[in-house]
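Recap from last week: sequence in, structure out.
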Amino acid sequence: METTNQNREPKFKIGDKVKVKDDAVYGEKYNLISLLENATPKGKVFTIKKVDPCDDNPDYLLDNGSFVGEDALELAEPQASDLLTSVIQDLKDREIKGIENYGTSMDRTDLTQKEWIQHAYEEALDLALYLKKIMTQ
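Predicted structure tokens:
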């Protein structure tokens, strides 16, 4: 007699960030109810909005409106915040500007450690002036 564990806890919960597994086969290997490859692409991160623990393979409503079976999903890696993403872009932009202005990147090897410290100290002094200016306005 085959039994199923209909009372087990679902693997994911509402609010979890998930993605469709890279090896998911749309409409075949996995229990994908209304999943279309273009609507729910593999690798894209979705948020679980509802859990339907109907059987051995619970279904999950994603924030794009697709229902996806549990065996087709995996937890997404933590995603960078919008703030961090913005800072990373600022760093990339800053490096490009530095290369345009000085003809070299931070990979340069022509400065001694003492010279790098001097540059960092001067940048810190500029920062102190900017902060003091803001504080006194």
